[in-house]
Amino acid sequence: MRLSSPPANNALVKLFEVRDSAPDNAEALALEIRVGERYAALAASRLAQDKVDLAVDFLVTAAALAPNNATVVKLTAQLEAKAPGKLAAQRQARVQELVAGGHYNLKRDRLTRPRERNALYRFVQALQLDPQSAAAKAGLRAVADRLLELAANPNASADNIADWRQTAQMIEKRYLHSSSTASVAAMAQTAAPAADDKPAQPSPPAASEPSPTAAVQAEQQPEPEAQSATAEPASAETSADEETAQQERQAQQEAAQALDEWIGMSVTLADDDIKAGRLIAPAQGNALARTRAVLRAAPDDARARSLAQRLVGALTLAALKEGLEPEMGLALLAQAASLLPGDARIGKAQGEVLQRQAQQRAQRAAAKQAARQAAKQAAESQFAPQPEAVAAAPAPSANAKEWVEPVTGMAFALAPKGCYQMGSAEGEADEKPLHKACLDAFWIGKFEVTQAQWMRVMGSSANPSKNAADPNRPVENISWHDTQEFIQKLNELSHANFRLPTEAEWEYACRSGGGDETWSGGADVQAAGWSKDVVGDGDGPYPVGRKQPNGLGLFDMSGNVYEWVADRYERDYYSRAPTQNPRNDSKNSPYQSLRSGSWRNEAVEVRCANRDWIKPNYFLDLIGFRLVRPAS
């Protein structure tokens, strides 16, 4: 859904181009209505969520494209009842911003290029939002005049001259509808000769002398009348030049007057925003956006500079507000510095905010250290290792589907024997080709190994995890070699044969026994997965078992922490992998495979088929593991 982005390739830009090339085309008109209806649907959705500002933003565009649409009419009435005058104010604010942007581009001769960031586009958008906007019309007049001025350059190419003339005439005809269209057309014709135009040549003089009769007639010609005859064309030419100059002066005066009115209105609206606390939000109606627009259009205007002073004062006070996060305060001061670099108020406020930030960080560090110490003390009493507690871990019964390892309390689920299609035909290159893998039955941990379980085996003071506030979180910050040490000690305590899963076993289990599942448990990463799309900038990793299990009863296989597996990583291993119980023990690769993805990864990176890699001696607070043991 590319309605307004990316900048050079979206529905609004395409619509603008089609409308310019064929304004009366039925398909173009239908496209305009469809885009308007889409914006109306977005407005309705945001209004249903009580997001009034976003609803207003979408509805302003929808009303410009499809004013008679039933949804637009209905939403307009609803918004007017919910927030009287807000829609009109937002529309006017949008017009002002577009006009300011148009003047900014006009000064830099960005008349019709680049796409969406040119004077013509912005003035037309403003006029579409407010067909009576004098500022938008004055801006379009200035664009047309500048195009004709360029077309008068005798050194310009014939193609450019023709294009500039045509665009200027289009602006007059389509957007201004003024009575001066004919004069502009005349200006376009006389602005510069086309490449193949040749000035009229004077007739060559006669080869013979004039006859006496002709000479007498010439002498008898009254002198005043002769002067009048020769002066008449010059007078007409002078009159046309004066008319043209007068039109140019009038257009410049109209543009200057419209800009002056716009500056006054923008300053008033910005002051209202400052009083209401709308300093940097919402996106389309805040004091910072209006101030920047005014400064871009008229950087030397006294009203603009005075407005900047007032806004910097307001931003400085807001940054020092009690209870505001220092990071947010520094962000506000950075915005203030972009308006008035070197302002003494900003420097003083930055010093106070930085001091507050340092104090806050020290307090948080102390609190975190206290929490870690408390967790460590609790672990020392609760999770002490018990090397003599169990002589041997009893094997699971023949018909069991679940089993609990008694030394650590780890729960295991049975993955039955079977074959499946491993990899992904649509995924990354190292997930291809899709190939058959057949596995013997095995037991696999229902959860990632937790910090509590790690400490039961390795000792209460041996927790390597960075986020150690909850012992039920996965153990992390461990290397592949660390997992081997843990497995060796656990096998000694339990007299069992635990190991890391192979890539094939891990993916088979993630897919609930080899099913066609994108994420563990199905197609819904929200239900079973921990990814950035799900938790945002949360405080992971998260305690195990809080999401839905997959079809084998396994938890957290899509995200939370990466999981070490037994295989070495090779990008092209799938092209030569054996079918039966594949495992890559190649000595040619320095990398160890990782699966699952983490809570800091995007959803696409926590798919069952996704592969990753890292050197086995590396450790991160995003990497954990789970165990398997043979079923027989």
Distance between the termini: 53 Å
Structural class: alpha+beta
Oligomer: single chain
Number of helices: 20
Label the overall shape. Answer: elongated
Approximate helicity band: 40-55%
Radius of gyration: 38 Å
Order of helices and strands: HHHHHHHHHHHHHHHEEEEEHHHHHEEEEE
Number of strands: 10
Report the sheet with the most strands, covering strand number, pairing sense and barrel closure.
4 strands, antiparallel
Physical arrangement of strands within the biggest beta sheet: 1-2-5-10
Estimated share of beta-strand residues:
5-15%
Q: Please, what is the average pLDDT?
A: 80
Question: Unreliable stretches, pLDDT < 50, 5 or more residues?
Answer: 178-232, 386-391
How would the blueprint of this fold be written?
Blueprint: H1 11-21, H2 26-48, H3 52-65, H4 70-82, H5 86-107, H6 119-129, H7 134-151, H8 158-176, H9 181-190, H10 212-220, H11 223-276, H12 287-297, H13 302-319, H14 326-339, H15 344-382, E1 402-404, E2 411-415, E3 418-422, E4 435-439, E5 442-445, H16 451-458, H17 480-494, H18 503-510, H19 525-528, H20 532-535, E6 562-568, E7 592-595, E8 612-614, E9 623-624, E10 628-630
Parallel strand pairs: 6-9
Antiparallel strand pairs: 1-2, 2-5, 3-4, 5-10, 6-7, 7-8
